[in-house]
């Protein structure tokens, strides 16, 4: 095969004294591939919480700098050394493990191990697929846990609580709940700013964080919800568990508000039979990932994902990472490469 080089444009995080800076870089990317690797031309990537942590120097995410963030991508195959992928295939990757992509997903070209890739149907728009990404995969995993472990009677209105509802996971979870016709209650820090947005995603009720976190020291709270998609952790998780009805399911996907379970006793589990399920986008086994992708396909076909898409370009990524700390971002931030 003819040897070619591509000019690779990518965003690189590097440490300048005590500050981490994001720089646009360019370099030649060889077409030479190792066994089972694929060269992708990327059209879109996205910003996830993991990328925000990397921008703050979190060594659990990025063990060394300089570092090219990005764990989601959609694009086309340029070259492949894996029999399952050929030139021109439309592909995507979510929750790409460290060291599985070079230089990273915030790039116009990327070499990636084939086990991280999956093909996408021609009728699926690239923008819709990337709007799912790692966050949406977590939401799909959580909703599947709710479907699997709940006794959903179509005659009764099934109630879903979503915390951190204006974020990536929460927004996708609301759309899933809308598909099933569930009665959705959304929790958000800023009701005035986000109420209209959340109701467009299917929320029937929008409540503020302060109201939701009242009485967080009590062992049990009045049962209000059949299930919860809990995206924040900490006191939000504690109260979500305490507010679930008998045999309720809480799917947990976040830790931005805390990592501790110290505010929860065993009573919700013993007296109400509550199930706490993790979502774990990065470590889903093939069965759980396959089931999540089936659910994602249903959502893509509803054409509802445009409501949560926020398209940005490379030169806007730095500001969006800063806004993350101020909770100014809603929905899914997708990067047009």
Provide a concise account of the structure shown.
This protein is α/β, with parallel strands linked by helices and 337 residues long. It has helices spanning 49-55, 126-149, 168-179, 191-200, 209-212, 234-242, 267-272, 286-301, 317-325; strands spanning 5-16, 19-30, 37-46, 73-80, 90-93, 101-102, 109-113, 118-119, 159-162, 183-188, 203-208, 225-230, 244-252, 275-278, 309-313, 332-336. Helix content is 29%, strand content 30%.
What are the key terms here?
eight-stranded mixed sheet, 337 residues, alpha/beta
Walk me through the topology:
Layout: E1 5-16, E2 19-30, E3 37-46, H1 49-55, E4 73-80, E5 90-93, E6 101-102, E7 109-113, E8 118-119, H2 126-149, E9 159-162, H3 168-179, E10 183-188, H4 191-200, E11 203-208, H5 209-212, E12 225-230, H6 234-242, E13 244-252, H7 267-272, E14 275-278, H8 286-301, E15 309-313, H9 317-325, E16 332-336
Parallel strand pairs: 9-10, 9-12, 10-11, 12-13, 13-14, 15-16
Antiparallel strand pairs: 1-2, 3-4, 3-7, 3-16, 4-5, 5-8, 6-7
Helix pairs in contact: 2-3, 2-8
